[in-house]
Design brief:
The chain has about 325 residues and is of the alpha+beta class. The chain has helices spanning about 20-30, 90-100, 165-175, 225-235, 295-300; strands spanning about 10-15, 30-40, 40-50, 60-65, 80-85, 105-110, 115-120, 125-130, 150-160, 175-180, 185-190, 195-200, 215-220, 245, 250-255, 265-270, 310, 315-319.
Length: about 325
């Protein structure tokens, strides 16, 4: 039987300011900061994870805040748009919420669905769509009730420099099903209920430039370590060049770049974010893997302070 991923595990992007990042994704979008740690490859930089109440696969967006990093340009070889999904009947709530925080938005239609399109503080492109499928998030924060809260990813729009090659990987390597083409995009669907709808441009796109406001990589789900090892073999057998398996503390990862230029990761669902914190205290402290604990004082000294705080539409903050 051909291998099939359930869909997106997480998406990781570059931003500039850590506190502004927390204010937008927790304060405006109402997501939970489920992990405050560091970039294991650059420990002077935060790695911030946001998701539902547990940071479940299919809900996790993560960020590397580089205060003095260059501004990026969205284009080929990247995730162009990150799609969030909310319960049916929630779009009016989100329109009003974005308006109250002075976040410009537009309405667009794709494949018969209505999308609320906007960007974050660094111009990362986002959209919200209503769908029935996908479990509700149980996290309520800052005036976002559970029945209106973001469930997780609806999917993503991939911008590729070589559409046919990218689509071949989606179908033959990741096991996504081609659904239909509409205008400039081809739609694919995975087997999961979150992070399961992927749209791809059908005409080659000019290369983007990595930097603040762009996605670094998109990660796909593997059930467990055994499945993950099988995925690595599977990717290699298709002529791609996966990395060795890397311990990311909260999941294991392999990376490979498909020929359209997009960096793909495959990540395990377990062990999850409660491996080093209690579930009711996720994201409250700076968590370091054991191999960095000896350098904790130095690492903490080099990081800016940040807090999760409730934002009021008039610009005041509490928390």
């Amino acid at each position: 039987m051909a291998k099939q991923t359930e869909g997106i595990h997480h998406i990781t992007a570059f931003v500039k300011n850590a506190q502004k990042n927390v204010d937008f994704y927790a304060g405006v979008l109402g997501l939970r900061l489920v992990k405050k740690t560091i970039n294991f490859d650059a420990p002077e930089v935060y790695h911030l994870y946001f998701g539902n109440e547990a940071g479940s696969p299919g809900t996790i967006i993560t960020f590397f805040p580089y205060e003095f990093g260059r501004k990026g340009r969205i284009g080929g070889g990247q995730v162009g748009i990150t799609t969030y999904v909310v319960p049916i009947g929630s779009l009016d709530f989100w329109k009003e919420r974005l308006e109250s925080f002075h976040v410009p938005y537009s309405m667009n239609t794709r494949f018969g669905e209505n999308y609320l399109t906007f960007s974050d503080q660094d111009d990362l492109q986002l959209e919200i769509v209503e769908r029935e499928e996908g479990e509700w998030s149980q996290w309520s924060f800052g005036g976002v009730p559970v029945d209106k809260a973001i469930k997780g990813f609806g999917g993503a729009v991939l911008y590729t420099t070589a559409p046919n090659k990218t689509m071949k990987v989606l179908e033959q390597v990741l096991g996504l099903q081609r659904v239909e083409q509409e205008g400039d995009f081809m739609r694919y669907k995975s087997t999961g209920t979150l992070g399961n709808i992927i749209d791809v441009n059908v005409a080659a796109m000019e290369w983007g430039i990595s930097g603040a406001g762009t996605v670094h990589h998109i990660a796909w789900r593997a059930k467990d370590d055994e499945d993950h090892a099988s995925w690595r073999t599977h990717v290699e057998q298709h002529g791609l060049q996966p990395t060795s398996i890397i311990d990311r503390q909260y999941f294991h990862a392999i990376y490979f770049r498909e020929e359209g230029g997009i960096l793909f990761e495959i990540a395990t669902d377990p062990p999850g974010f409660a491996v080093d914190e209690q579930s009711d205290a996720l994201g409250e402290k700076l968590m370091l893997p054991e191999w960095f604990e000896v350098n904790r004082a130095e690492i903490e000294k080099g990081l800016s302070s940040l807090q999760v705080r409730v934002l009021e539409p008039d610009g005041t903050k509490s928390g």
